[in-house]
Amino acid sequence: MTAPKADLRVAVIGVGVMGADHVARLSATTSGARVAVVNDHLPAKAAQLAATIPGCRAVEDPLAAIADPGVDAVVLASPGPAHHEQLLACLQHRKPVLCEKPLTTDLDTALDVVRREAALGVRLIQVGFMRRFDDEYRQLKAALDAGELGRPLLMHCVHRNRDVHAGFDSAMVVRDSLVHEVDVARFLLDEEITSIQIVRPATNPGAPAGLQDPQIAILRTTSGRYVDVELFVTTGVGYEVRTEVVGERGSALIGLAVGLVRKSADGRWGGGIAADFRARFRAAYDTQMQRWVDAVAAGARTGDYADGPGAWDGYAAAAVCAAGVRSLESGRTESVELALRDTPE
Ligand code: ISE
């Protein structure tokens, strides 16, 4: 009889909102993995969390946590500015890593990560663009790939948040929110984005002072298709993400997320609305984690430690957002400067 395979021992670096969510997911939902180490820039927070998870330790230095011989793989949910150094440590120690966006916070370091991973000749980095694991996005992608709409021509996206945390500025609407639509556009249309313009409509009087909200982004792809995105992060209502693709033989729309439709005695009808991205994309996050764990476990055999968007996708999305931030300032259409791709798909 062969011994049961040991669980993958995961270090979660950064246990804020997203990291804590991943710790809970790995502990309760994902099979074949467990949280062995947690780390946070607030050591007491990590220690407190570790005490609630059997067999889990808090390690104060993130680089030591990554290098720890008791760690097989890493989930990076630390603040973006720490990612470059931490990703390089994962590559150095050959630890597969699921990295929350952004890959890094500037294009030089993002490209550095892409190239260093490519030099190793093995895919160790997966970027947490979780929408690619959402059932509705997968159905839309399958319909497009099967040619059901003919050639896709246009895409209309809506990205609304109920509210954002203090300090969320206009550039963050591009880097933190629009970045998902950028990835979705690249995923669904299967091509790069070559230019972007951000238009500034009259602002929501309820938005914090100085925040340009809403914004409209207009993206152009290599073959000349256009994607428009409404970004509105202070609606006060709930989390709404919709995508409509218009093709030469019809259109398809996802993200109505009405769930159960109720009719009430006061003459109203309607469904539910998710409060935030964790609720809306819970199943996608779960699937992403399970598939990543399975890919890492199979990596020694397959030579591929990721199953989803990789470092190039993180870099390409960041390049579009960097041009978007320039457009926010200039008001003009800005070209996306993408390095020549010399890495495998
Ligand atoms: C947040 O970081 C996310 O990733 C959400 O998906 C997005 O809707 C939100 O605007 C971002 O701040």
From TrEMBL:
GO terms for biological process: inositol catabolic process. It comes from the Bacteria. Residues 8-128 form the Gfo/Idh/MocA-like oxidoreductase N-terminal domain. Its EC number is 1.1.1.18. It catalyses: myo-inositol + NAD(+) = scyllo-inosose + NADH + H(+). Keywords: NAD, Oxidoreductase. It is an enzyme of class 1 (oxidoreductase). It holds the Pfam family GFO_IDH_MocA_C3. Residues 137-252 form the GFO/IDH/MocA-like oxidoreductase domain. Gene3D superfamilies: Dihydrodipicolinate Reductase, domain 2, NAD(P)-binding Rossmann-like Domain. GO terms for molecular function: inositol 2-dehydrogenase (NAD+) activity; nucleotide binding. Belongs to the Gfo/Idh/MocA family. Homotetramer. Involved in the oxidation of myo-inositol (MI) to 2-keto-myo-inositol (2KMI or 2-inosose). This is Inositol 2-dehydrogenase. It comes from Mycolicibacterium chitae. The lineage of its organism: Bacteria, Bacillati, Actinomycetota, Actinomycetes, Mycobacteriales.
